[in-house]
Write a structure and sequence with these properties.
84 residues; mainly alpha
């Protein structure tokens, strides 16, 4: 069973979806369903990772775990704030 919902998407995403739909045997609804299922599956996998923030911070401080420079203004929070 499926239900109709209304969502807002950016213009460039809609244009890309329409362009992909023209060359695909799937409808826009089917493509959105596939993409959303993949996204949710990836999010569930990421949520299952058990990362101890304090232990990871100690590892970075000791040099055992490499750290990477992050440009804060370029980051987008997809999930909530990180563990302190």
């Amino acid at each position: 069973m499926s239900r109709r919902i209304a969502v807002s998407v950016d213009d460039d995403v809609l244009e890309a979806l329409n362009a992909h739909t023209r060359g695909s045997p799937l409808s826009r609804s089917e493509l959105v369903n596939v993409a959303l299922r993949r996204f949710l599956r990836a999010e569930r996998r990421a949520a299952r990772l058990n990362v101890n923030g304090a232990e990871q911070a100690r590892g970075i401080a000791s040099g055992a775990v490499p750290s990477h420079r992050l440009e804060g203004h370029l980051l987008r929070l997809y999930r909530g704030p990180w563990e302190n």
